[in-house]
Amino acid sequence: MGYARAWKARTGRRVIGSFPMNFPSEMAHAAGALPLIIQEAEDPITAGHGLLFPFYCGFTRSAVDQAAKGDLAVLDAIMFGDHCVQLLGAADAVRVALPDTRVIFFQLISSMCDPWTLGRSKESFEKLRFELEDFIGEPVRDDAMRASIALFNRGRQAMRELYRMRVEGRVALTAREMQYVVKSSMVMDRAEHLELVEALVASASENLPQPEKRAVRLHLSGHFCQAPKPELLDMIEGCGAIVVGDDLYHGYRYISTDVGEEGNPMDSLARWYLDRNTGVPCPTRVQNDVDWDAFLLDAMRKESAEGMIVLMAKFCEPHMYYYPEVKEAFEKAGMPHLLIETEHESMALEHMRTRVESFLELIKRRRGVARANTPEGEVA
Amino acid sequence: MNAPVTLPKPPGAANKLKSTRMAGKLVNDYWEMVWRAKEEGKLVCWYEGSSINPFLEAADIVWVHGEAYSAMLAARHQEGPAQAAAEERGYLRELCSYARTHLGCAVNNQRHRNGSDSAFADVPADEDISAKLPPPDMIISAYAYCSTGQQWDEMTSRLFGKKIPIFNVSIPWIWASGKDAGYCRGQEWEETSRYVARQLEEMVKFIEEQTGKPYPWDRLRELMGNVKKASELRLEAMDMCRAKPAPATLFDWSVSIAPINQLPCTTDIVDYFTNVRNEVAERVRTGEAAVPKEKYRLFFDGIMNWNKLGWLAEKFARYDAAVVAGRYTHMAFWQEPDLIDPNNPVMGMGQNYLICPNNHSSPILIDLIMGLCEKYEVDGIVFHATRTCRAFTNPMFMIAQEATSRLGIQTTMFEGDVADETFYKDELLNTRVEAMLEAIDQKRLSAF
């Protein structure tokens, strides 16, 4: 929030917050505001206990806690359209906690392959745009929307280039650093952010350290709303792994899909909403013709990942529903995975370290078995 | 070996309605019909949430309401095998226990069906009714508010290998945007009603595809005529509980959920609620109380704890507390019969799905609850903090704050769950309810 406060003081313009997961920040940007995706804070939950029960995910409790403490005062409005039941509860509580802040909501359809999904998505975005225009007191022009879409696309493309470079070993970014790159794009001025990312891409291959050869290549999966704690990422890599891919919200999921730059921007946003779930399926949507488990296995093949750590935010219902499908598919494919539940308040990091070390050890042993089974291994 | 000592059962403190005993028979008959469905060559549809059963019943499709099956298992204390099967497959304990139990039934069903090639192959025990549920020929998802419903249906479909046709009806949350927003009014309400009705029309086409027959609209009209009448009788009887002492409690209305929510919409349900209405009216006339020494009147906010239904009825009665109304029983299940036009039922059905109480954001919901608290002249609200049902727990703190500031009444909370008994904490409930009742006593004393 510090950046947003400074930006607001510097520019005198509005800051519009949004909840994860599918609100198009381009819309708020085109209205001349700084779009900011509300993040899980570091603080322990205190005031928020008076609005939500402790058996909610860390993100929703933290968002409500921040509202109750007055930490979201920098936001002129909050816009969202998602449907997770805990997010809806949080939005209701935030509206109560911030009676002077306009909270704009229109529910996006979450059933993704109905004949009316595209049309309804467009209606939802149009409704959000209508309410945004009502709030700022002027229309949001189509050409401004297209310009914002183009800028955001460039940002996503630059970040995806970093992802490609990481898979290919052309950039040495830790999981923590990659998270910083994506997370900062959620809260910063996009033009400023783009400049920094493009500079990072340009300079990345200089002084490239050689990765440790025996490091296990991992894919991180999960966390649809909040960023995994950086110390958790450090711990995983500190055990002898390198993260080569992810489908985290504060990662590839967020930057996976561009919005069409031609034509009616509302059509493009609706299309983007559907394409996003086909590109990187999300368990918060239902789409019978797309399989998240198959996507994960395919992504890992492309990344040459040897195992996956599932980071499940405790109490995340969509993730709990889908996890058995992933578990079963991975067991069937013989692909190792490890489930770690994460919490807002505390994590038994040392206990987790033991589990991660054992998991990595298991993968390394499989390498040995695989080598022994090759013709070369047999000779040896 | 000594013979087991059987202690005499203490007389029940709760004076339950006699007319609701018929619900047990109707419920048993209904589930027997479900279990026979495949033998009789019937198509079976699984669904959760909204009461779309009349649409199915009219088309001669056997309907299985997931929550109802889980609730029935929990009420009979037979939820264990289903929940164990779900856990074994990887469904974590914090997941909605309705869903977890029902998905466990699907897991069990698949295991027994595919016994020869499954590592989990097993023969169900005779008493394990989780495995008796006939597998679906179709799935319809029409769930208001809670994202869990749609995901639950999707996962059911995947458990059956995505081979079963599935249809989704999206029911948007009423956020109460715009100056004209309110309960059953405003542009948002009108737009959303039309959106849901359009999808229901599409759902009927889906049903026609499954049955291969034209949809029997006349039959639906007839069934909805019964539903409307039953709903009016139910609301009339509930309304009579404004009387002091109250002739019936929330626990009687909980027993009566199945007849209004998922039992066949024949004249049986009209007869059932006629009998209930008549008994309640007679109790009002004679002054017969549901809680013989009614001293406190309470509102129950939260979904029912099906493992503990009878237990809670007795417990509150022993505290001389009549739980006269609740969000679950008094704000749902064909709650607005006036919206139903049996001759043209689709729009009114969709609107009744939309007014599931949780589907209103807090400004509307809180007004409705405060209205009920005033209507039934309650002394306090008991919140059932339902561990795995966030749809119900979402607004609880906000409701509690408003009850205190707007009505000046006491509130308390206890932890439990819809279908997972392990979350229920009896001593916590005792302590908190006793503290609340003492506070009510103190308030009454200070009023003199």
What key attributes describe this structure?
heterodimer; A: 380 residues; alpha/beta; Rossmann fold; four-stranded parallel β-sheet; 15 helices; B: 448 residues; 18 helices; globular
Computed CA radius of gyration of chain A, to the nearest angstrom: 21 Å
How much of the polypeptide of chain A forms β-strand, as a percent range? 5-15%
Query: Per CATH, what is the topology of the domain at 7-141 in chain A?
Result: Rossmann fold
Amino-to-carboxy terminus distance of chain B: 61 Å
Q: Helical percent range of chain A? A: 40-55%
Q: Any low-confidence stretches of chain A, pLDDT <50, length ≥5?
A: none
Strand line-up in the sheet with most strands of chain A? 2-1-3-4
Low-confidence stretches of chain B: 116-121
What structural class is derived from the secondary structure elements of chain A? alpha/beta
CATH architecture of the domain at 7-141 in chain A: 3-Layer(aba) Sandwich
SSE order of chain A:
HEHEHEHEHHHHEHEHHHEHEHH
- How many β-strands of chain A, per DSSP? 8
What percent of residues of chain B adopt helix (DSSP H or I)? Answer: 40-55%
User: Number of DSSP helices of chain A?
Assistant: 15
- Give the count of helical stretches of chain B: 18
Q: Oligomeric status of the shown chains?
A: heterodimer
Rg over CA atoms of chain B: 22 Å
Content-based structural category of chain B: alpha/beta
- Describe the global form of chain A: globular
CATH class of the domain at 7-141 in chain A: Alpha Beta
What's the story with the biggest beta sheet of chain B? 4 strands, parallel
